[in-house]
Design a protein that fits this description.
- By secondary structure, the protein is an alpha+beta fold.
- It has a domain of 103 residues.
- 23% of the residues lie in helices and 29% in strands.
- The chain is built from 10 helices and 27 strands.
- A hairpin with a 7-residue loop joins β17 and β18.
- The N and C termini lie far apart (71 Å).
Length: 467
């Protein structure tokens, strides 16, 4: 493979006219050559620091358009399974000496070339005094355990080490949720990074903090969730951790709020709402652990709901699998669930739906308690966004698997099963423990046993909680 010489790469980084005839060829080469990409990144970091030293511009100069094509075109989160071109920070002291030592292609004329390149760079910086620090992409680089933020055209704005990042990326994939979101919180056109990732050893242990970073890498604020709470005349210490979060426009202020679901080691759970500046707006308290799904638009009423799944510990001897639909715009002040409360707080107006998932006949015969997965969006016929969730048992009983599919108004569309579920049903039927047919009767019965809390009693039809 023929490599461009270092002087040509420097001119390419600086956007010099001399490099224009070779630009496309260089870009194609950078797609396949990690060594030259490293040189490009080092040179970019060097000139960015140099510009900061001379007060020509603040921060890092963006790379030329399309110099890192694999990082463009996705204004969202991208997880890199392999390390991309590593960033080698250049210390402010002795930058020129370090840069000269680390360039492998320097020749006798390299010094003159560097001086010329510096002159071109200074002219370039003077002509373009402003830089675009708006983040358009975030990479969870698990192989190097760091978070990376990029601006337009693949310009790297900052990197940040994250301990054990690979573990959290694996959790994201397994649980169908993200620990990182890029969004414009303040409505000023500049994106922020919201991340539930531990940045210190203490946070690794408790996982109770959500961080918000700007395009300049500085932390705008951190949300440390949890508190000691009293429920049913018992004091629960502050042992909360973040289960999930989501961001959305839940008011008419033109800014976005952050909603965080936090769980104690066993019970209770608290769903917090914070404004764009990190100030607490309110909370929803629930006795029993619940887990969050990212919000979606409930098309029937137009209210954006957050769907949470988990268990109610109202009857601690018989925990029940439940689904909760919360209106985040109504999470104001501290309030509690209408069904599973006990915090001596008013009932939360945010609780729109409260649904009980039945303990199936198979689970009862096997002596198992069913659990619920995190809810996921489901595209229904007609282009409507519903949601689905899985009912599972312990790993030793895969036959407990069922999938419930709901319409936006929380009515049940269908109950599906996996092959092992039917096999277990057939076995129990042969033993005389169950009767009837599987597809025609059992699944319909399971779906028909769902119950909806109206604020005072359980109902067989899908009704909202009345306040």
């Amino acid at each position: 493979m023929e490599h461009p010489d270092e002087h040509t790469l420097e001119l390419f980084v600086l956007g010099a006219r001399e490099a224009e005839p070779s630009r496309k060829k260089i870009e194609a080469h950078l797609r396949h050559c990690a060594g030259c990409r490293e040189l490009v990144d080092r040179a970019s970091a060097f000139y960015a620091d140099l510009s900061a030293e001379t007060d020509l511009v603040g921060g890092e100069q963006p790379l030329p358009s399309s110099s890192l094509p694999v990082r463009r075109g996705v204004a969202a989160i991208f997880r890199s399974p392999l390390a991309e071109a590593p960033l080698w920070p250049v210390p402010r002291g002795g930058m020129l000496r370090r840069f000269g030592r680390t360039h492998p292609v320097m020749s006798a004329g390299g010094g003159l070339a560097l001086v010329s390149a510096l002159a071109i760079g200074v002219a370039t910086f003077v002509r373009h005094p402003a830089r675009d620090v708006n983040m358009t992409q975030v990479i969870e680089n698990s192989s190097e355990s760091r978070l990376e933020a990029y601006g337009p055209a693949g310009a790297r704005l900052w990197t940040m080490p994250v301990p054990h990042l690979a573990t959290y990326v694996a959790d994201e994939d397994a649980l169908h949720r993200s620990c990182v979101e890029i969004t414009d919180l303040e409505g000023d056109g500049l994106n922020d990074v919201v991340a539930n990732l531990p940045m210190t050893a203490e946070e690794v242990a408790c996982r109770n903090t959500v961080h918000v970073f700007g395009g300049d890498r500085r932390e705008k604020f951190a949300l440390r969730v949890g508190e000691a709470v009293t429920c049913r005349n018992r004091i629960y210490p502050d042992e909360f951790s973040v289960d999930a979060f989501c961001v959305g426009e839940f008011s008419s202020s033109g800014t976005k709020d952050i909603v965080v679901a936090a769980n104690d080691l066993h019970s209770p759970s608290i769903v917090y709402r914070y404004d764009a500046a990190g100030r607490k707006v309110g909370s929803y308290r629930h006795f029993g652990q619940i887990k969050m799904m990212t919000r979606y638009l409930l098309t029937v009423t137009g209210r954006p709901l957050i769907v949470l799944t988990g268990v109610s510990d109202r009857d601690e001897a018989e925990p029940e699998a439940v689904v909760v639909g919360l209106d985040p715009s109504a999470i104001t002040g501290d309030a509690e669930s209408s069904f599973s409360g006990g915090f001596h707080l008013p009932v939360s107006a945010a609780e729109v739906f409260y649904v009980r998932i039945p303990q199936s006949a198979i689970a009862k015969e096997l002596g198992e308690r069913v659990g619920l997965s995190v809810a996921r969006l489901a595209r229904l016929p007609g282009g409507v966004n519903g949601f689905s969730l899985n009912v599972t048992g312990s790993p030793r009983n895969p036959g407990l698997y069922l999938e419930y599919i709901f319409r936006p108004d929380f009515t049940i569309v269908e109950v599906k099963s996996a092959n092992p579920t039917k096999a277990v049903f057939d076995t129990l039927k042969l033993r005389g423990q169950l009767t009837g047919g599987f597809y025609d009767e059992y699944l319909r019965t399971v779906g028909g046993e769902i119950r909806y809390w109206d604020g005072a009693a359980w109902q067989a039809s899908a009704v909202p909680v009345r306040h």
